[in-house]
Structures are given as structure tokens and as C-alpha cells.
Amino acid sequence: MLKTIAKGSDAAQEMPGGPDIVLLDDNAVGLFTAVADLATPAGARLSAFYPRTGRRATLVAKKNGSQVTLSGGVSGTLTIDGSGRLTGVELANGISAVLSE
After folding, report:
1. Beta strands 21-23; 44-50: pairing state
2. What distance separates the 2 farthest-apart alpha carbons in the chain?
3. Percent of the chain scored above 70 by pLDDT?
4. Residue 5 — left, alpha, or beta (φ > 0 → left; ψ -120 to 50 → alpha)?
């Protein structure tokens, strides 16, 4: 269940769930932490759901050292540090961010 609260209103919406489903939003790149956490060297097949727009996508997240390569319905590169923390996002749709402490 996803609850959205805005000035003067609130709403609840049921979302799909499961071990290979991630909630994403291009305006909240920190959500890509879940993708980085689920990535494997062989490539993890994930289903992405964008609650704000209703968009759905299937992607593969392949971890190689400090980089996670995304392909499929969401493509780009995630950068992680030695402890596995997401430090950068660069998506094929032009969205990029550097995350710092």
C-alpha cells in the first residue's frame, strides 16, 4: 500500500509486490538503491513499477564491481561504492544524479 499525502488531501493505492518488483520514480533517483541491492553478476530480472504514472517496465540489473548496468525497459548505469551504497545514477532517458552523504 502506498499512501500519498499532499496539502488538503491524501490517498492510498495498492501496489504490486514481490521479491523482484521495485518501485521507481525518475524524480526520486534514490529509489534506484533497491535496484542496485538486487543486482547480481549474472543479471537479475526485475519488474519496475512507477506509481505516479502507472508505467511498468522489465529490466535486467547486472552488477560488475562498482557498476550496475541496467538494460531492457529501464537502461543506464548505477554506480555503487565499496560498501554497496548507491553513489550515482545515469539513465538512458537523460536523467543523471550524483548522490552524496
Report:
1. parallel
2. 47
3. 85
4. beta
Q: What CA–CA distances, in Å, run from 65 to 1, 17, 27, 82, 101?
A: 34, 28, 26, 9, 21
Burial 70-87 (b: 16+ CB within 10 A, else e): beeebebebbbeeeeebe
pLDDT of residue 42: 98
DSSP character at residue 29: G
Residue 65: Cβ within 10 Å count: 9
**Secondary structure (H, E, C), 35-98:** HHHHCECCCEEEEEEECCCCEEEEEEEEEECCEEEEEECCCEEEEECCCCCEEEEEECCCCEEE
| C-alpha cell read off for 86 | 548507491
pLDDT by residue (tens digit) across 15-64? 556 678 898 988 888 899 999 999 999 999 999 998 888 899 999 999 99
